[in-house]
Amino acid sequence: MTLCKPAHLPFAGLLASVALAVAGATASLAPLAALAQNALPLAAPSVRGLPDFTDLVDLVGPSVVNIRTLERASASAGTGSGADEQMLEFFRRFGIPVPPGMTPRGPRPDDRGPREDPQPRGVGSGFILSADGLIMTNAHVVDGADELIVTLPDKREFKAKIVGADKRTDVAVVKIEATGLAAVKIGDVNRLRVGEWVMAIGSPFGLENTVTAGIVSAKKRDTGDFLPFIQTDVAINPGNSGGPLINMRGEVVGINSQIYSRSGGFQGISFAIPIDEAVRVSDQLKSSGRVTRGRIGVQIDQVSKDVAESIGLGTPKGALVRGVEPNSPAAKAGVEPGDIILKFDGKEIDKSVDLPRLVGNTKPGNKSSVTVFRRGSQRELSITVAELEPERPEAVAAASESPKPRAAGGAQALGLTLAELPAAQKKELGLKGGVRIEAAEGPAARAGLREGDVIVAVGNTETPGVKEFEAAFAKLDKSRPVNVLFRRGEWAQYAVIRPAR
């Protein structure tokens, strides 16, 4: 086999060879050059440099504070350092398993009882709302603290008092006795766009004035009853809670509040409370120390695609009413279990979580309009909003009578054994009628129905008794799924039964 080796030419010969090669290449490229001169110029891609956050840090940095929480040691005396307690609180808040070695330590040998001096409990962040010392932070930062110490960027320290805290939105307002402070500028969340650069300043793990940056990953993330969160990829860790999320105009657009993590550390997903929602809450906290919300007295659920199609709603939207509290505003207005609320005060309900937010932001005593979808048609109702009360425990209905079960043609085809609903159970559930399921098999069982459920409508037709159930079922198209509205205790929901063929 012959191997190819590089040729060894004298220096003069090498130069001559190179000159000939260049001349030949130039001649061969001449036609291409002529074509290039006649071709249309290519549009250069728009290149934008990375943002510079230095001016934003100078602008907003003086308004961001460190908040240390203290508690008078009793049961927790000697359980570990403040940093350990802070991490444990973080794990408890987000339901993350506590890593080995992070469990609280027991009392030290020299501990002879509770110490009188307040001990470190945790570290958080906040930002100045007004020059006279009002500061906004998270409710979970100040929850349970006996003392609050606020440290300004210029290292001045102040004892703070809690003006008010709202756990439902995780917003709190505290006050320090100071004047001439640098307050933040509040931004417009509606102008915030997905993909926009944002910055956070806070005290992760107690490291004061730490700056991190990223982009808005999504808006209106549903992670809470009353808040649509801003999702970002800004690095947020324990201690960042309560600090500001800042846009490129130097305006606060959110309060950093939560992260999604499987390890306990930042994994690229963090959530901020929209500042417009936080300001709405803080205004009430400043004026009365508490937040007043509206309620109408319904338990709701999401509307599935199968249910929407089977009842004639088409698009899965609105809030499915699973239960109505007795004597509640909804009950007095005529709202019934199984209704689907499509609008509240003229505002569309796209997802079920939209309803608590709209109702909660409505002043108690206000008269509001409600559009419901009931058995194939829409109805307009008028409802007087009440004040939100503590959640009442769920009641479970029990049957005191056991009528003889009946299995008939229509019910049997669905896998159901039905009986008339006892009068006592009608009264207990607040129903005018319905049929009780004594057994559910085959298609009915696969749809989620079970013994003890009460069917109140089939195919958008009310079923006050077994006879009416059979009559309504006889009119249905047996080749299509059957929608059934039923009660389970105080909860109403739909099931879509696909008859066996």
Layout: helices, strands, pairs:
Elements: H1 11-38, H2 54-60, E1 64-72, H3 82-93, E2 118-128, E3 134-137, H4 139-142, E4 147-151, E5 157-166, E6 171-175, E7 185-186, E8 197-202, E9 210-222, E10 228-232, E11 244-247, E12 251-259, E13 270-274, H5 275-288, E14 294-295, E15 298-302, H6 305-310, E16 319-324, H7 329-333, E17 340-344, E18 347-348, H8 354-360, E19 367-374, E20 377-384, E21 386-387, H9 409-413, E22 416-420, H10 423-429, E23 435-440, H11 442-446, E24 454-458, E25 461-462, H12 466-474, E26 482-488, E27 491-497
Parallel strand pairs: 7-12
Antiparallel strand pairs: 1-2, 1-4, 2-3, 3-6, 4-5, 5-6, 8-9, 8-11, 9-10, 10-13, 11-12, 12-13, 14-21, 15-16, 16-17, 17-18, 17-19, 19-20, 22-23, 23-24, 24-25, 24-26, 26-27
Could you explain how this protein is built, in words?
With 501 residues, the protein is of the alpha+beta class. It has four domains: 107 residues, Beta Barrel (Thrombin, subunit H); 104 residues, Thrombin, subunit H; 94 residues, PDZ domain (Pdz3 Domain, Roll); 89 residues, PDZ domain (Pdz3 Domain, Roll), CATH 2.30.42. Helix content is 22%, strand content 32%. The protein is built from twelve helices and 27 strands. The strands form five sheets. A six-stranded antiparallel beta barrel has the order 1-2-3-6-5-4. Strands 8-9-10-13-12-11 form a six-stranded antiparallel β-barrel. A hairpin with a 3-residue loop joins strand 11 and strand 12. The longest helix is centred in the first third of the chain and has 28 residues. The protein is elongated and about 80 Å long. The N terminus is likely disordered.
